[in-house]
Specification:
Layout lengths: L1 H15 L1 E2 L2 H4 L5 H13 L3 E13 L1 H9 L2 H8 L7 E2 H8 L2 H12 L2 E4 L2 E4 L7 H12 L5 H9 L3 E13 L16 H6 L26 H15 L11 E3 H4 L33 H9 L14 H5 L1 E3 L4 H8 L1
Antiparallel strand pairs: 1-6, 2-6, 3-5, 4-5, 7-8
Helix pairs in contact: 1-3, 4-8, 5-7
């Protein structure tokens, strides 16, 4: 079907030069089939096309009912006998059900009928069922010349609209009536035989969207982690911001009492930033940290080594989130 449709489009273009509207020519072919064939031909540069959008109106079930049997207001009018006696409102409700109220309201508005006590009487001897006539126009043409009529019919839930897509097609740069099979891959056999020189390759569509995966779920460990996270949040704890991935050695190591000669600070265990290599300044209490490292304090004798400010200024990729805790505590 796809190949036959593509050939039919090419032959039509060859005979007439262009296709003004695909819906007028390929009436029994779905829009999906048309666009599939056009995209295939467009990739080969045999055709060019533009999308046409047309608003088409159709009847709702209630609109079809009024087209077949007359509008509710006309049915109510026909049920009211001529003369001053008319017909009782209760009798109309028994005969027409919910239609009675709708028909009466429209009949009152059109001044076809009026209420006389508990009865409905005629004001005119004959009527023109314009609603039925308007519905017939919509049924036959898919629209109506008067937009206000369409708006009113839609408000009364008698009609509905839908967008109908079709396409205007013209010849492409490489137009021909022959279909050529395009290669999708460059294979080793094509390179060895030289076939690639004369092969026509299908263009890649880099704008196409990938297929969304249908599966996937959280790892069990991540599920448990999230459960604990929610427990702590419900208890009133707040999460610390951990989006600063570059940290100074001062915050990453020194504030945590890691000595500057510790193996964890060696190149093979820590990634140091090359540019910029150091921070501009340290926080104001850095000398207190230096004193604890060199001389001790708070019950400690310290590491007894010369602490280096230059070493503390070095920038590293943060090796853990405990440095964030130091920031928060400070």
């Amino acid at each position: 079907m796809s190949e036959n449709l593509r050939l039919e489009i090419l032959n039509k273009l060859n005979a007439e030069g262009s296709i003004g509207n695909t819906s007028a020519i390929f009436k029994d072919v779905s829009v999906e089939s048309i666009i599939g064939a056009l995209k295939s031909l467009e990739i080969q540069e045999k055709v060019e096309y533009k999308t046409l959008s047309t608003e088409v109106w159709s009847l709702e079930p209630e609109g079809q009912d009024q087209l077949d049997n007359g509008s509710y207001e006309a049915q109510i009018f026909d049920a009211v006998p001529a003369g001053d006696q008319g017909i009782s409102i209760d009798e109309l409700k028994v005969k027409f059900g919910n239609k009675a109220n709708l028909g009466q309201g429209k009949g009152f508005k059109n001044k076809w009928i009026k209420k006389a006590g508990n009865s409905i009487v005629r004001l005119v001897s004959e009527i023109v069922d314009q609603t039925r006539a308007d519905l017939e126009v919509v049924k036959n043409t898919g629209t109506h010349p008067n937009k206000d009529v369409l708006k009113d019919l839609k408000r009364r839930s008698l009609v509905k609209s839908a967008k109908l897509l079709s396409y205007a097609v013209s010849k492409g740069q490489k137009f021909s009536t022959e279909l050529t099979k395009q290669s999708t891959d460059l294979t080793a056999e094509m390179l060895q035989s030289g076939q690639w020189k004369n092969a026509e390759f299908k263009k890649f569509n880099f704008d196409s969207l990938g297929v969304n995966p249908e599966g996937g779920n959280l790892h069990p460990v991540m599920k448990v982690r999230e459960e604990f996270r929610q427990i702590f949040l419900q208890m009133g704890f707040e999460e610390m911001a951990t989006n600063d991935f570059v940290e100074t050695a001062f915050w990453n190591f020194d504030t945590l009492y890691v000595p500057q000669q510790h193996p964890a600070r060696d190149l093979q265990d820590t990634f140091f930033i090359k540019d910029p290599a150091q921070s501009k300044e340290l926080p104001g209490f850095w000398q207190s940290v230096k004193a604890v490292h060199e001389e001790g304090g708070y019950g400690s004798i310290g590491y007894r080594y010369p602490w280096s400010e230059a070493e503390a200024r070095k920038l590293v990729l943060r090796t853990h989130t405990t440095s964030v805790s130091s920031h928060v505590l400070n």
